[in-house]
Design a protein that fits this description.
The complex is a heterotrimer of chains A (290), B (267) and C (280). In chain A, helix 3 packs across helix 4 and helix 4 packs across helix 5. Chain A is built from 11 helices and 10 strands. Chain A folds into 2 domains: 244 residues, Rossmann fold (3-Layer(aba) Sandwich); 42 residues, no CATH class. Chain A has 290 residues and is α/β, with parallel strands linked by helices. The relative contact order of chain A is 0.13. Chain B is mainly alpha-helical and 267 residues long. Chain B has a domain of 146 residues. Helix content of chain B is 69%, strand content 3%. A two-stranded antiparallel ribbon of chain B has the order 1-2. In chain B, 24% of the residues are buried. The N terminus of chain B is likely disordered. Chain C has 2 domains: 232 residues, P-loop containing nucleotide triphosphate hydrolases (Rossmann fold, 3-Layer(aba) Sandwich); 39 residues, no CATH class. The chains are: A alpha/beta (290), B mainly alpha (267), C alpha/beta (280). Chains B and C meet through helix 8 and helix 10 of B and helix 2, helix 3 and helix 4 of C.
């Protein structure tokens, strides 16, 4: 069996335990993330997905259960818990709000500096990360505050990539961006994964984004895992997805409607290309039948 | 976690203490403080204690909540007690080594600590039973006469209520930025004082930037909702004094004058 | 038809900027219509919103709402009461610690009588479906609920027109649906003119009219199905088209004759089925 790069065992997290405001954010989650996978975590606000990912890099301590990185418990000792942050890079929602340095270069270098790398290594990391997200070197000496919204976002993502994590976790990386900005970020992530071979976990509530890029979808609902499978498997269960308040990708909705109208469109379609091909193959089939 | 910090805490309820007009409660606390500082003997302190206990009972705030509120101030209370105990001249009661305790000192220590405890309890009762909004609007109305001499009373109370409104938002944001910087290896917990102060920069800079952005957006939002200062403004919730308020005032003044009289006539 | 908003030759440049944000916009919006404004970031759509209620004033040209010239300083309050603005970040537009106090803010500023304010606040909260939450603290609500409270705060002014500047950008799909269905209901049932600024294509599908802005100019204007039919234009503007249009566009290229205007999922599916049956 393949070794999982990240694994959670019976992970549970309860907020404000022992007070009247006690709330179980996640209850008993078992997940194995394999090396090199691109996984999308989907769920609406409050489904526990954001709480879950903050356990993966040791920011939140589980109420009970374990998180294993390459088989070792990340909460075993303080040093391991601290160092896991560099192995599992977490990009928060609206990461542009965390930029603080005077220049773009210094901000991207913040993580590597904390890792106590040499200046030459830091420089290497910064330039490489900036390249991945398409931040040109001419921006290095600018203040992050002077950049446009999309550029800030990419600088902030570079700040995490610069730590050369084995696993990159991104929480809603496209939130609030326009379609072009979304495409750019998504392409950056795909390119980064292709070149670095890293494991990528994408937290999102955009079904279209998830459908477009992920190998595997994990759907969260009410603090637990509701579905876990390939996009094809997950989007074959459209009714279940709609029931827990999530959207289905627009092409899936069209395919569904076509099926209702009597066209033999297969289940589990989730991209525009698949849909087009399915319709065209029906056309061909129709002609031969006639 | 920062989320556990509760500033100006308010416990919603529907007791007589909650229903009182905020102005009554503000003036009431003032009367209470005057009385407290006029109290000089056992009887007057007894009265103050009885009044405090009665108010706590009426407000249905649990004793546990009150003691929890007192906890952070325990050091100050004990220190005040000890200083008064050891540094008051008078008839020596006990004396050993460098420590001398006098009869007067013991009495003073007891009085001073009860004064502080009662003072804290009284003001706590005010914030526990009054929503921040009611408190600011009460304050605005009470201070209104000052606007005649060009004191910006409306602006001050508006700023106060905005500050109260944004405290939870800013706490949440601080938490978020802190986590985000920790994810990049920032360390807020260890190191020397200077190192720790420096480590706060990645937290404080984004917090300032975002506060300015928020303030800017808030100002635009307020303007587009027709805000143009205090002139011509009305209030949905008009403050109204009821019989219960007059009763509270009467009792409050009786208490105050009673305590002052006790002090004056030296009973 | 009665035109509620009239924009003539509108130019706007931010102080200190060299490039104008808006350059030569001419628009008329019909009273009671639901208009979507689409454009990528930096296309000038938020600036346009702020020009409609005199938060910003035109550098050149004229904006009139319900007959009030926005540059007329004497009538600014009247203007702002007529056009309400809802902004992107729900946290930065809620002013009070209690939902109902927040909704009361605008009528209080306008000096409305207390009993009347109470009536309007209750009405507004019921309209957006937030009446049960009137005694809640806003920071504990979900994003979609906060935006509905913000909308109620505008409704309490009894405006003729509501302009929403990317109100769903920070919301999840549930919140987005809540907000869009609320505003479209306001338009259909209460006859309030709605100007919805967005970059989510799916939110434009139900609008009466779709205006596309780019680099401070109107580049497309018409019924949504017609505007989306020109997919090439939208793609070149860095925008996308709904999945329905995309499918119809691709099918057309592959020789299946389907109308590009069937943008709603149901219409699209029917069009595809019909086209295939004809082929057979």
């Amino acid at each position: 069996m393949e070794t999982a790069i990240l694994e959670t065992i019976a992970l549970r997290h309860v907020y404000s335990a022992g007070t009247p405001f006690e709330k179980t954010a996640i209850g008993c989650v078992d997940v194995r993330i394999n090396k090199g996978e691109l996984v999308a975590l989907i769920g609406h606000t409050g489904s526990g997905k954001s709480t879950f990912v903050q356990h993966l890099n040791g920011l939140l301590k589980p109420t009970s259960g374990q998180v294993l990185y390459n088989g070792t418990d990340i909460f075993a000792d303080k040093k391991t818990t601290h160092n896991i942050r560099y192995k599992v890079g977490l990009v928060f929602q609206y990461p542009e709000y965390q930029l603080f340095e005077e220049t773009v270069y210094k901000d991207i270098a913040f993580g590597p500096k904390n890792m106590k790398l040499s200046d030459a290594e830091i420089d290497d990391c910064v330039r490489e990360a900036a390249r991945f997200v398409g931040v040109g070197e001419e921006l290095f000496e600018k203040s992050p505050l002077e950049l446009s919204g999309g550029q800030k976002r990419r600088v902030a993502i570079a700040g995490v990539i610069a730590m050369r994590p084995e696993v990159l976790v991104l929480d809603e990386p496209t939130a609030g961006l326009d379609p072009k900005g979304c495409d750019e970020i998504i392409n950056n992530i795909l390119e980064y994964r292709k070149q670095s071979g890293s494991t990528v976990i994408l937290v999102t509530h955009s079904m279209d984004d998830a459908a477009r890029i992920a190998d595997r979808l994990i759907v969260f609902s009410e603090g637990g895992i509701f579905m876990d499978g390939s996009p094809h498997e997950v989007f074959s269960r459209t009714e279940d997805i709609l029931r827990i308040g999530l959207d289905i990708p627009a092409p899936t909705a069209i395919a569904e409607k076509l099926r209702k109208l009597g066209l033999p469109v297969p289940e589990g379609i989730y991209t525009s290309e698949h849909l087009k091909d399915a319709v065209l193959s029906i056309k061909k089939g129709g002609c031969t039948n006639a | 976690m920062l989320k556990d910090v509760t500033l100006g805490q308010y416990f919603p309820g529907d007791t007589a203490a909650h229903r009182l007009d905020p102005r009554t409660k503000l003036v009431g606390v003032l009367i209470f403080i005057i009385a407290l500082f006029s109290a000089v003997n056992w009887i007057s302190y007894g009265i103050m204690l009885a009044v405090t206990i009665a108010c706590i009972a009426i407000s249905k705030i649990s004793i546990k909540t009150i003691t929890k509120g007192l906890k952070p101030l325990v050091v100050i209370i004990i220190l005040t007690g000890l200083l008064n105990l050891f540094y008051t001249q008078g008839d020596v009661l006990i004396s050993f080594w460098v420590i001398t305790i006098t009869k007067q000192g013991l009495k003073r220590a007891l009085f001073m600590t009860s004064r502080i405890i009662l003072l804290i309890c009284g003001t706590f009762l005010l914030t526990y039973t009054t929503s921040p909004v009611a408190l600011t609007s009460g304050l605005e109305r009470l201070l209104k006469p000052l606007s005649k001499i060009k004191v910006p009373v409306h602006e001050m109370s508006m700023m106060m209520s905005m500050a109260l409104r944004f405290i939870p938002t800013l706490i949440e944001e601080t938490d978020k930025i802190m986590s985000a910087q920790k994810a990049r290896g920032a360390d807020f917990e260890t190191g020397s004082l200077a190192q720790r102060a420096k480590a706060l920069l990645p937290l404080l800079v984004p917090l300032f930037v975002s506060s300015f952005r928020r303030a800017d957006e808030l100002a635009v939002a307020m303007e587009s909702r027709c805000y143009h200062g205090g002139s011509g403004r009305t209030a949905m919730k008009r403050l109204k004094m009821g019989s219960i308020d007059y009763l509270a005032f009467t009792l409050g003044f009786i208490m105050m004058f009673g305590v002052i009289a006790l002090a004056y006539f030296g009973l | 038809m009665d035109k509620i908003i009239k924009i003539e030759n509108l130019h706007f440049t931010y102080p200190g900027d060299e490039i104008p944000t808006l350059c030569g916009i001419d628009l008329e919006i019909e009273r009671g219509s639901f208009v979507a404004v689409l454009g990528h970031n930096g296309s000038g759509k938020s600036t346009l919103a702020k020009l409609l209620n005199a938060i910003l004033l035109p550098s050149d040209g004229k904006v009139t709402v319900s007959g009030i010239d926005t540059a007329d300083k004497e009538r600014t309050l009247e203007l702002r009461r007529t056009v309400g603005l809802v902004f992107q970040n729900p946290d930065n537009q809620i002013v009070a610690n209690l939902v109902e106090d927040d909704v009361a803010f605008a009528p209080e500023n306008l000096g409305v009588e207390p009993e009347e304010i109470r009536r309007r606040v209750d009405d507004a909260l019921k309209t957006v479906g937030m009446y049960e939450y009137r005694m809640h603290a806003p920071h504990l609500l979900s994003g979609g609920q906060k935006q509905r409270v913000a909308i109620a705060g505008i409704l309490a002014m009894q405006p003729d027109c509501i302009v929403l500047d990317e109100p769903t950008a920070m919301l999840d799909p549930i919140g987005r649906r809540e907000v869009v269905s609320t505003v479209s209901r306001l338009c259909r049932e209460k006859g309030i003119t709605v100007l919805l600024i967005t970059h989510h294509m799916s939110e434009c599908v139900d609008a009466d009219r779709l205006i596309v802005l780019s680099e401070g100019k109107v580049v497309a204007d018409g019924v949504p199905s017609d505007v989306f039919a020109d997919a090439d234009l939208l793609w070149s503007e860095g925008l996308s088209v709904p999945a329905t249009t995309k499918l119809l566009y691709e099918l057309n290229k592959s020789g299946i004759n389907v109308p590009l205007t069937a943008i709603k999922t149901d219409d699209c599916a029917t069009a595809v089925v019909n086209a295939l049956n004809l082929v057979k």
